[in-house]
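Q: Here's a chain of 303 amino acids. Please give me its 3D structure as tokens.
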Amino acid sequence: MASKCPNCGQTLKWYDIKAECKNCGVSIPNFNWEARLEEDAERAAASSASFHKTMNMFKYSVWGTKLRIVRIILSFIPIVGYIVPWFKITSEAENIGIDVLGLFTDGKSLIDLISSFFGNSSLYFQNMKYEGFSGPVTFIMLGVLFMVLCLLFAVIAFFMILITNKKPKSKKMVIFDALSIISSVLSVVMFTLAVKSGTSFTAVNLGDIPLYEIRGGIMWGYFVALALLCIAFIANLLVAKAPAKSHEELEEERLAKKAEKEEKERQAAQRKEEARIEAEKKAEEEQKRIVEEARAKLAEKKK
């Protein structure tokens, strides 16, 4: 977009490098500088007020009350639920522990399973097609998918606390927490169906992982993860139902606290000044007493 002279409106070409307009001769950088300075000051004040409002609401939404402090902690803790084992699939060939790091189960971990899938996904789809998309391989991969979605929804719910700071009564976190809980239940259901359908197949190939005589069941870690997800859901629900303060109310409280602090500082300064004056008076009186005693002693000597 071409620039124009602020005085006459003449369009300036790219080669017009002089400070003065060639049409009216006004100095473009210095034209109406006082008004432009006031406009810049107004824009800066508006920007500062907007930033202050955003930060004020952010602090209140995240840790403005005791309930909100508890909520932010309980919304982060469910991540622990993905370290513990949810399900275990055992066979005469390989074992698969449905926990991320494989710390609590023997055999392949969830990370190994996902790496195997992305390493040769076509083989997995061939195996699923072979069993008519209704066998152990299909149900296991659906269980993994719902577990990943469960983690994704839990993470989104956590970040929604930070994103929706301007709306402290937002219920978006509650929705994503509910989706996370539903996904976790569907995940375990899929793993259970995989074990049950495995009775119809003596041996299956889960990609490049051989499974023979499939067995398995839900492990204690899933109930821990489900409990943590439900606690986060309840915490977000309580926050959404609790009374929330507006920016104006928060600003009034801030100004009241500021005025109270300034009053305390003024009173402290006043007490300090009064103590200083009192100390000076006592020092003067003491000095006066010393002088009088010296004069009295000198008068006695003269006598």
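Q: Can you summarize the key feature?
A: Residues 34 and 40 are 10 Å apart (CA to CA).
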